[in-house]
Amino acid sequence: MRIDPALAALRRDRGPQRLAQSAMVDACDAWRASAEIRQLLAEFERYGDGARLMACPALLALFTDRGSAPRLVAALVRQFCAALTAEPLGHPPFRHGFDRGIATLLLARHGQAQLVLHAIEPGHASFAVASFSDGKRREAVLAGEARARIVRRRGRFGLLAERGISLAPGVRLALDLREDALQVLAIERRLVSLRLQRCARAPRPTCEYDLASGALLRQAAGDIRTSRQEMMLAVLGRMGRTEAAPVMAAIAREPGDASLRWQALRECLALDTATGLAALGDLSRASPDPLAAPARMLRARLLEAHPDLRAPEAEACPA
């Protein structure tokens, strides 16, 4: 394997690497220090804390007029191009990524909000599904040319409608992600946009629908904290930690996120059948509970498929 001499030098001596990174941090600080950016970031923090976008005029201007967003990004590019000219191996001090032709640069994050510079390489894509999450997004197209569509969901049963749009510099979008899904179908020139997204404080599950039939295919927790808890439950289940079954049963019974409670019930049933059936029986009788109906259906299917489960259920839930 050939290692470039410049990279080899950095491996031998971390000093130049620290200097390069210091130059990138200084460039970022200089960008943030300008009066215009300071005001914008202050408004962004208020927005992340729940303020209405209309109460943040500088932030709103990024996604309503044609000049504010390009000026914001041009100022950033000027600072970092100068730093990279002096230190070509420096890295922007922002969270960034590149995956399958999509690049992201997280410019700011606060509370429920994110400000992201987003780019997609030229190419074509097809979609068989549409996903909807509990949040709102504003988008300002800065460069490129693409053909896209907005898939709209109406009502809780996934009635879908499509509207084709063209994306080019100057296009501004306002999307309610509970009902609108933007799908980029064909990109002629690299599409670069600035995105402002804010999720709900207690987000409802993300839903994925089949475009052809409108059928709900799957749901996922809308809150990353819930996803982490679901993952913890799954790990305990795969480890066979039967002592966790009573805690899982308690989570299933308590009010809270329905997705997390259902996952806890499933893992409890797998770990300790009697404890899980007792929790399932309690849920099936809790009529105001949104999980009552699916719990009754699951209980009926389990007892029909495995009649021998009636004995442990009777022991766990004496009449």
Identify the CATH homologous superfamily of the largest domain: Jelly Rolls
Query: Which architecture name of the largest domain does CATH use?
Result: Sandwich
Measure the end-to-end span: 73 Å
Number of helices: 11
Query: Mind summarizing the main beta sheet?
Result: 8 strands, antiparallel
What best-fitting shape do the alpha-carbon axes yield? globular
Secondary-structure-derived class: alpha+beta
Indicate the CATH class of the largest domain. Answer: Mainly Beta
Q: Uncertain runs with pLDDT below 50, 5 residues or more?
A: none
> What is the H-and-E element order?
HHHHHEEEEEEEEEEEHHHHHH
Q: What portion of residues belong to β-strands?
A: 25-35%
Kindly state the number of beta strands: 11
Return the domain count: 2
Radius of gyration: 25 Å
Helicity, in percent? Answer: 40-55%
Q: What fold name goes in the CATH topology slot of the largest domain?
A: Jelly Rolls
